[in-house]
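Q: How would the structure tokens look for this protein?
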Amino acid sequence: MKPFEKGAAARAVENKPQRYDVIAVDFDGTLCEDRFPDIGAPKPVVIEFVKHHAARGTKIVLHTCRENLPQRAALDEAVEFCAAHEIPLYAVNENPSNPFPELYGTGPGRKVYADLYIDDKAVNVANMELVADMWETTPARNNAIQNFLQKLLKR
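A: Here is the predicted structure in token form.
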């Protein structure tokens, strides 16, 4: 299977039927190329993955730093992009499915609640744990690990 072949993401998740109640997805660099404040080219594999899960009943929350400003409605542009690509949004930068306020009597919380976060600037903790035991071994290995993590952060 080619990594960007149409349908590849949907076929990959069919092989591992994971069910998420809520997916929070970033916009710039994730659903589209990062060209902020403009809208970059769509990222078809990410869009297809999100749409596939939405079709299975997953609620999709757009989780972005974009805001509507007097000179440009950047957040509205992101929401319009999602509509144009048939990504059904349950919420935008909100916590409507967060169970913790009701369970624990807390406020709505600042972090968007989700079972899965998709963001181009995220680092998977499992990747960090794989290299953690090598962290302090030698200066050369230390530098290699730091370079690896910096590359992950720049994706």
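The chain has two domains: 8-119, 123-155.

Strands lie at 22-25, 59-62, 68-69, 72-73, 91-92, 116-118.

Upvote if useful.
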